[in-house]
Amino acid sequence: MLSFILLLAFAQTAKGQQFGFWSFSLDQGLAQQHVTCIEKDVRGQLWLGTRGGGMALFDGAQFKNYQTEDGLLSNIVLSIEQGTDGHIWVSSQEGLQKYDGLEFETVDFQIDIANITQLKEINDSTLLIGTKKGLLKLNTTTGELSEFNEGQILRYAEIRQISKSHSKTWIATTQGVFSLNQIDKIVQYGTDHGLPSNQVINVVPQGGESLLIFFEDAAPVYFFPEKGKVSNIEANDFPGMMIHGLFTQDRFWVVAASGLFFLEEGSASWVKVENLPVDPDEISSLYADGKENLWFGTQNDGLLKLFQPRIGTLKAGEDFPAGTLTSVCQDKDGVLWVGMESGKLLQYKDSLFSDYTNHSGYLDQPISDLEVDHKNRLWVATAGKGIALLDSLGLFKIFTDNQGLPSSDIYELHFQAPDKMWVSSESHPLAYINIEEIDSNEYFGVHQIRFAAAVDSRKFFSAPNNDTWISRGNGQLLQFNKQGNLIRFFGEEEGLRGTEILDLSFESYPSILISLAGRGILSANMGEENPLFTRIPENSQLRSRNITSISKDARGNLWLGHERGIDQLSPEGKVSFISLGLVGDPGAIIGKHPTTNEDQSFWLLGQKGIAFVEPSGLKGAQTIPELSITGINLFYEPILGTDAGFQLNPLFESKEGLELNWKENHLGFSFSGVDFDFPDQVRYQWRLQPLEKEWSPISYQTLANYPNLAPGAYQYQVRATTNSKDFSETKTFSFKINAPVWQKAWFKIIAALTIGLIGFLLIRSFIRSRTRSSENRAEKLSLENNLLELRQKALQLQMNPHYIFNTLNSINSLIATGKSQEARSQINTFAKQLRSTLSNSREEKISLENEIESLGQYLKMLQFSHSEDFKYDFQVETGINSEEIELPPMLLQPFVENAVLHGFQGLDRLGELSVQFSKQGQLLKCVILDNGIGRKASAEKKKSGHRSHAINVTLERLDSYKNGLNYNSLEIVDLYEDGTPSGTQVTILLPYWVNF
User: Fold this and answer.
1) Do the domains spanning 621-740 and 799-994 agree at the CATH topology level?
2) Are 719 and 728 spatial neighbours (Cβ–Cβ below 8 Å)?
3) Nearest to 419 by CA among 434, 408, 432
4) pLDDT (average), residues 546-574
């Protein structure tokens, strides 16, 4: 709160302009110190070209370098341009390339690359290439390169800068300013049009029709091309020959041969920045990033960033009563308390000072120190009247040596713990006091510590581990733990010089810095077993060796207070001086160690006033990061050309409209904020709507995962902040997870209708089943009767009189010829066959073994009674147990009979018949294969209109066994060999049962 209160007053009283420079070079990760060009991308990051180190990407916190091993043609980079769709154009010593965030694509054309000075993409298909000898145009779609030759003037001009306005492109050259419209018409403007020079170094389009033009050898002017009017910028002390020039916010900036200068808009004089850390001719590029940041690319010192610290002063005799200040502190309500040598106690509240001395009724002695305890009570140390406690009622309670203090002449106070206070006094023991006891006892609980030598204890310092360090007048340093016990002692043997210690800094702990009166700064590493204090390297640019305060900012710069003002010492050893005008005579000391706030701001006390310093130049409330969604993950893998069809260019914002299926429901979002003033303070909040109504807690986390998302439409939102109060613009990404088919509305409607229909059909079926029960029973009886009739027919066909007559006639012939033995054998076989047929006709199912035996007997009788010779065999597939397999009886004989009686009739070769059994799924497959004359020849020998009645009856029986299954139970195929009939193949599929 102190920083905001002080800034209100300091803005009114501060005088002069102070600047500082942040340096980024090899120590910060930059690959090469010579920076050739600077370009900002859509995410707010800076791209740097270097001479020898390739290309670097800088986000304020770290560098990412791209070199030849990453695909860059050369590590000497000449120019960089941000493309319209987020890609980066880069020209190096070996060629022109386009970088899309994944890889470098080389542009193949013939040009002297070393002559390239500028790149500018003016639309999605045109890249302008500025050279030392004119302007070229590259069609990025076709790869065609062309030259602008109009008037032959631009052809020989060196292109120094290319700028884009709404409808025109403006080109700064050594031959004046050129405009290029959308149809490539070129117009030249120079001294003939009133410009003071043709040596143009930059053209900055302004609002409306005006241009701000910077020249190499003349002051900048405003130019109105349409009117042909020039408006001079009237200001004194123009710096002369310029190297770079630009305009940012309300200031003109120029790098001239004589230094860095700026001109406030409306001001009468150019002002030189006195502490430029490099020679002007070493500045290779000047760039404004659009957020009040000015960047310098240098030849030997890497990247520099200009900043203007916010410095304000409150002066004695002007802002509050005259006199010498001795101490200052701030309470938890933001009220500033100031003690003076005169004994006055001042209160600074609501931007106004008030004299609080009258409230005390006794403070007529110099105030030596002020401290505020954990209860927000003010403790006032005096030189002669002890300590006064200002309680919450605004009343003082007095403590002197009569109440247990070692002396009433108090030098300094220090709180180590909420209830423990150190008190030092002139030539008296050090006191360690339990301040809680004052509520019930008018005496302090004092633990007095006496030193071996009677030397004063002077100053207290708090370490990060809550230890207290105490300096003594003889230059010794003591370390006390939380319990108030001495644990370490440092003196001349440890490198101290016997000189008064003015300040001690723990901001790089365990390394500490101490300043000695008149002897500069020492450092020691407390992490070592035997720490030794050594002097930091001398710097002749420091304004004083009498450093009274040390503070360190986030960039590693040391801010050193002394009797002349403040020196800023960079990690590279560069010094910037800031004058405060707060001290009196030379040698006067600026108070105690500065208080550093969370935003790195701090304040200092001088004898003549108070100084507030904000090193970054920006209040935390004013800096807002530039935020981007940098990646989207699906199941922890980046989405880059996945099946989801989503494309994400790593260099620019992701395109919205991701659509996923219901299984792709684990998403992660990565994001990044860029803030060049507070890169380490960038934090984020996010939420996924409509799943989350509230923002997440503020976090440094840069990845948010969402597993197991339900189908629906979502929008991911993220925002960034550096101070937890002011946020960036919210970045969003919309996506949709499609529901599975069964969760879609149309599917639910169809499902509901289907269920309703099924219910209706079930009910109707139930009702009908009742009415049809009698019909079903009648149908079943009819079917059974039909099967019985078919079996009778089959039996009649197998026992047909013609067959019996032929068989008996053949037996009779044997008897007549005296072959009685053979006749008896045939009679026995015939009897077995008849018995088997009659037996099988009474069974529903018979074994496959029985069927084969019955067919064998039948074929044997046909061999006996038939005039044509033939042979037969039975084949059963391996794995079929013919004893366990059962099938309907009397189905196969008609086909066997047909093959013998008709297939072998008139055959001129031995007839062959094969009956094969195998399984096909849940059916038994029987193949009857013969080498007969075929169906066509057999049909010609039959009577006209004859049809095998036995086969028709068998087909009916086969169909009756299907039980609703859909399969072809009978297939007859004629076999041919070289076009001549070679037999017939009958395939029968029939059900079977297994009888274990």
Assistant:
1) no
2) yes
3) 434
4) 76
Instruction: Tell me the β-bridge partners of 97.
Output: 90, 106
Distance of CA 651 to CAs 55, 84, 629, 809, Å? 15, 11, 10, 104
**239 and 205 in contact (C-beta within 8 Å)?**
no
Output 582 or 234, whichever has higher pLDDT. 234
Distance CA 24, CA 462 (A): 31
Per-domain residue ranges for the chain?
Answer: 316-618, 621-740, 799-994
- Evaluate if pTM is beyond 0.90: no
What's 316-618's CATH class? mainly beta
Distance between CA atoms of residues 280 and 622, nearest Å: 31
3-state secondary structure 204-238: EECCCCCEEEEECCCCCEEEECCCCEEEECCCECC
pLDDT of 736 higher than 50: yes
The residue count of the chain comes to 996
How many angstroms separate the Cα of 849 from the Cα of each of 620, 662, 855, 897, 912? 100, 58, 10, 19, 21
Q: Pick from 226, 240, 307, 224: which is nearest to 576 by CA?
A: 307
pLDDT interval class at 484 (50, 70, 90): confident
Distances (CA, A) of 649 to 42, 103, 195, 379, 684: 12, 11, 44, 61, 22
Question: Tokens 């998403």 — which residue?
Answer: 667
Q: What distance, in Å, lies between the first and last C-alpha atoms of the chain?
A: 96
Spatial CA neighbour of 837 closest among 819, 820, 856, 823: 856
Which H or E element spans position 52?
none
State the residue for tokens 């007969």. 932
pLDDT for the residue numbered 775:
60
Q: What is the pLDDT of residue 48?
A: 96
SS3 912: strand
Rounded CA gap, 510 and 536, in Å?
A: 16
Residue 875: other Cβ atoms inside 10 A: 11
CA dist list (Å): 644 to 100, 632, 659: 21, 12, 7
CATH class of the domain at 799-994: alpha beta
Fold (CATH) for 621-740: Immunoglobulin-like (2.60.40)
Residue type, 881: N
Reading across the β-sheet that carries 637-638, which strands appear in turn? Answer: 637-638, 626-634, 667-674, 703-706
Per-range mean pLDDT, top range of 114-123, 552-561, 568-577, 785-794: 114-123
- Average pLDDT on 18-37 reads 86
On whether the CB atoms of residues 896 and 926 are closer than 8 A, the answer is: no
Between CA 216 and CA 210 the distance in angstroms is 20
